[in-house]
Each structure stands twice: as C-alpha cells, then as structure tokens.
Design goal:
The chain is an alpha/beta fold. The chain folds into three domains: 3-88, Arc Repressor Mutant, subunit A, CATH 1.10.10.10; 105-158 and 265-291, Periplasmic binding protein-like II (D-Maltodextrin-Binding Protein, domain 2), CATH 3.40.190; 163-261, D-Maltodextrin-Binding Protein, domain 2 (3-Layer(aba) Sandwich). 46% of the residues lie in helices and 19% in strands. It has helices at 3-16, 19-26, 30-44, 60-88, 102-114, 127-136, 172-175, 198-210, 223-231, 258-261, 275-291, and strands spanning 49-51, 56-58, 92-97, 119-124, 141-145, 154-155, 159-161, 164-168, 188-191, 217-219, 235-239, 251-254, 263-269. The strands form three sheets. Strands 3, 4, 5, 6, 7 and 13 form a six-stranded mixed β-sheet that branches. Strands 10-9-11-8-12 form a five-stranded mixed β-sheet, covered by helices on one side. It has a two-stranded antiparallel sheet with strand order 1-2. Helix 8 (198-210) links the parallel strand 9 and strand 10. Helix 1 crosses helix 2 (19-26), helix 1 crosses helix 4 and helix 2 packs across helix 3 (30-44).
Length: 296
C-alpha cells in the first residue's frame, strides 16, 4: 500500500468533510478515494471516517491521527520538492572565495569551474563563513586564506600571493629606496576583522612584530575602506591588487618583507568527489600568480 498517497486521501476527506469534494480537490474520481481510505483503515486497524448522509465525519481515532497524518503528507511533499530542486541543480557547482581573492583570481577560478560543471553559483564571504558552508554541504569548494581552522575538511596545497604595502603618498616609506616595516611605526594597520579568520589575523600581526612593527589594528572590510583610511594619513594596509590603487594619487604601493606580508590561499572541500577540482583550482591559482608579475 502507498501509505503517503492514502494518508493524503484521508486528510482531504477530513478537511473537506465530503468524499466528492475531496475527490475534486485531489483531481480524481470518488471511487478510488473511497477505496483508498478503506485500505488505509484496514492497514491501520481503526476506522478513521464515519460516512453519514451529510458526507463524512471523523471518528475519535480519526481526530487523534489527523494531525500526524498532515505532518507525514506535508513532509513527503517537502521531500519531493527538495529532491526535484536538487535534481534540477545537480550540475551546478557551488563555490566561494574570500574577498581578498580579487577580480582577476576570481575569474581564474570561475574559468576552471566552468571547465568541469555546466553551471556555477559563487559567493564571497570571509573564511569562517566559507568553512561553515563547506562543512554543511551548501558549498562544494571554497578558496580561503591560510592558516584557518577547517576541521575535517580536506585542503589543497598553499598558494603564496605576494602583496604590496599601501602607504600614504607623503609618508617617508613611499619614497624610500628600500622601505622597511619599522618605518610604519607611526601608522595603524588596516586589515579585515579578526572574526573573518582569527589564525590568519594573528599570524600576520605576530610576523610584523617579529620584524619590529607592533601596529594597532584598524578593521576594514574592503579596498575602498583601505583607500579612505590610508588617504587620511594615519594608516597603512596590504593589497594583492596594486592596479586598484594606480590612479589614486594619495597613496603609494611599495614592497616590503614579502614573506611576512604575503597572502596565503588554499582550496578546501568536503566530498572526495571534489578532490580533483581542488587540485585543478590550486594549480590554476599558482600558474596565474607565477605568470602575472605579482611580485613586481
């Protein structure tokens, strides 16, 4: 017996109070509804509906079982709808990246995904949010900054992305032949909020301290906010995308202590089905970085 189908008959008759109206609601004739209800009652061993001259009334057992029957029918409908949604999007690759990845590297990753999937959905979020989504299964892969707590997820090898130091145009470091991090002691450091990725945040500050720079952190969420803070003359920051600042006369991009200031990226996934894509994305990122003059 198709339990869910026959429970649906029961719910329709109970709510309509009439076999004919229930059949019309179910878009079928009355006899199959009556026969199906009788089969359900036989299977359950209790009478659910009392047939009257006015139509159909619930028995005591029917009144008690109706709420549970509604839940089962509704759950079955939701299950079917979700399964159809998943089937419709089976070929959609869901991936994410941290905001620091930038437009050029995002395009590199999108092109690699397009080579393996018929469609893709992409989100930009801090590493902490991306990790949570990959763990939950709402994302297939993600590009995050390293180090990061990833639990049981699998990660590709780390890709090192050199970054420039963005300083005020009138600061001594902007015109120095060999600028040093210690020269920035009078400036605060603009960087994403610690909550975005605590390990990466702390590692950067520790590395700067080892080079004699203990700057106060100023949280920013975008390159636009970085430009505003540095233009104000009291802050500096880091960027892997020097081209965004080329036309901004109030700031300069200089290179300092590449190993400390570099952005480190890695691709993470949960399902073994996406292990190959993680490797392909990692290779694509590394090739683009090597061939695009990031260090210059």
């Amino acid at each position: 017996m198709d339990l869910v189908r026959h429970l649906n008959f029961f719910v329709a008759v109970a709510e309509e109070g009439h076999f004919g109206d229930a059949a019309a609601r179910l878009e079928m004739t009355q006899p199959p509804v009556s026969q199906g209800l009788r089969r359900l009652e036989k299977e359950l061993g209790v009478a659910l509906i009392r047939r009257t001259s006015r139509g159909a009334d619930l028995t005591p057992a029917g009144r008690e079982l109706l709420p549970r029957a509604r839940l089962l029918v509704d759950d079955a409908r939701r299950l079917t709808a979700e399964a159809r949604r998943l089937a419709d999007r089976a070929d959609v690759l869901r991936w994410g990246a941290v905001p620091q990845l930038g437009a050029a590297l995002t395009a590199v990753c999108a092109a690699q995904v397009a080579a393996t999937a018929t469609d893709q959905d992409m989100v930009t979020e801090p590493a902490s949010g991306l990790v949570a989504q990959v763990i939950a299964g709402s994302l297939d892969v993600a590009v995050i900054d390293h180090p990061c707590v990833t639990g049981t997820l699998t990660a590709g090898t780390v890709v090192r992305l050199p970054r420039w130091v963005v300083v005020p145009a009138d600061h001594a470091a902007a015109s120095a032949a060999r600028p040093r991090l210690r020269q920035l002691a009078d400036l605060s450091l603009c960087l994403p909020p610690r909550a975005w990725n605590p390990p990466a945040h702390d590692q950067l500050l520790d590395g700067l301290r080892e080079h004699g720079l203990d700057s106060a952190a100023r949280p920013i969420a975008s390159d636009t906010e970085l430009v505003a803070a540095v233009t104000g003359g009291s802050a500096f920051g880091l960027t892997a995308h020097r081209e965004l600042f080329a036309a901004v006369a109030s700031v300069r991009c200089v290179t300092m202590s590449d190993d400390v200031t570099a952005l480190r990226l890695k691709v993470i996934h949960r399902s073994p089905d996406h292990a190959a894509l993680t490797g392909e994305l990692t290779s694509a990122l590394r090739s683009h970085v090597a061939g695009s003059g990031y260090a210059g």
